[in-house]
Amino acid sequence: MIGQLSSGQERLFYSFNLEDHIPANHLLRSIDRCLDLSDLRHYLADFHSPIGRPSIDPELMIRMLVVDYCYGIRSERRLCEEAHLNLAYRWFCRLSLEDDVPNHSTFSKNRHGRFRDSDLFRWLFNEVLRRCMDAGSLFVAPALVLPRRED
After folding, report:
1. Residues 6-55: pLDDT tens digits?
2. Spatial separation of the C-alpha atoms in residues 100 and 103, rounded to whole Å
3. What is the band of 80 on the pLDDT scale with cuts at 50, 70, 90?
4. 0.85 cut: is pTM over it?
5. DSSP of 91-120, one letter per residue?
6. 101: exposed, middle or buried (C-beta count within 10 Å: 0-12, 13-18, 19+)?
7. Alpha carbon distance 137, 121 (integer Å)
8. At what angle do helices 27-34 and 58-71 cross, to 10 degrees?
9. SS3 of 25, please?
């Protein structure tokens, strides 16, 4: 008898946890263990207006940029599409299956406007560097060290 794939849409409720679907050795899990953006909202507080629409969470924006850089996604439109589709990206960005991914134009405006005006990237780099130094884990990346030739 030939089997038939069901449409998969019959159930009304699903029990689905993103955490269960991201492998323990996934690159984004390793980064997530080290990434602490707890001071981010405080640092950017002066760049957000108290009136108007609620803004996009700056931690979401930074996490999306990390995905962008780690996976070489070349456009903000494509990044938003990938964040919508990829379970690991959703998990890393703290998005549930129901959460909306920011529109690419909103993402661009924040990245090229508010983030640039705030000197956020320099602050973030300095924070990462400081934390590495405090932990005694500042090192030269092995990929940058050329092996000696033995002739």
Report:
1. 666 666 667 788 899 999 999 999 888 878 888 777 777 776 667 777 77
2. 9
3. very high
4. no
5. HHTT--SSSPPPPHHHHHHIIIIIHHHHTH
6. buried
7. 21
8. 140
9. coil
